[in-house]
C-alpha cells in the first residue's frame, strides 16, 4: 500500500460564505534533483555525474519542446503539455490572442501512475494534525 498523509483544509464557499473542511495532501518536503541522483546511483553502475547530466538534459529537452509548442511523453511516467485559459466570445472570428489570460504546463500521468494512484483500494490514508486555512477565511 502507498501511504498518503492528509490534513484538514478550511475553505469558504464564495457564494454561501459558509466554511467547510476538506481533506488536502499534507505539506511535504520535496525530493530534490540531487536526492534523485543519489538514489539512482545506488541502484545502478552509472556515476552520479552522468546521472545528473542525463537528468539536466532531460529537463532542458522538456522545456525546449514545450517552448516549441510540442507536448512531451515520458512513457509510464506521463506527459507534459501547454494549456491556455482565455475569455470567451460569441463568434469564432473574434477569437484572438488578446483573449488569452494565462498559459500553464499540465502534467498527465501515464498508465503506470494511474494504475498506482487511481486505485483507492491500493492506497492508505493517514490524517496528520493541523488545519490549513484558506486565504479567504477570516477569523
Describe this structure in words.
- The protein has 139 residues and is α+β, with helices and mostly antiparallel strands.
- 27% of the residues lie in helices and 36% in strands.
- The strands form two sheets. A three-stranded mixed beta sheet has the order 2-1-6, with no helix packed on it. The chain has a three-stranded antiparallel beta sheet with strand order 3-4-5.
- Strand 1 and strand 2 form a beta hairpin.
- The longest helix is centred in the middle third of the chain and has 20 residues.
- The two termini are 38 Å apart.
Structure summary:
The chain has 139 residues and is α+β, with helices and mostly antiparallel strands. Helices cover 27% and strands 36% of the residues.
Overview features:
about 35% strand, about 140 residues, flat, 6 strands, 3 helices
Q: Reading side by side through the largest sheet, how are the strands ordered?
A: 2-1-6
Instruction: Tally the helices.
Output: 3
Main sheet attributes: strand count, strand direction, barrel closure: 3 strands, mixed
Categorize the overall geometry: flat
| Unreliable stretches covering 5 or more consecutive residues | none
What does the radius of gyration come to? 21 Å
| Cα separation of the termini | 38 Å
Instruction: Write the H/E string, N to C.
Output: EEHHEEEHE
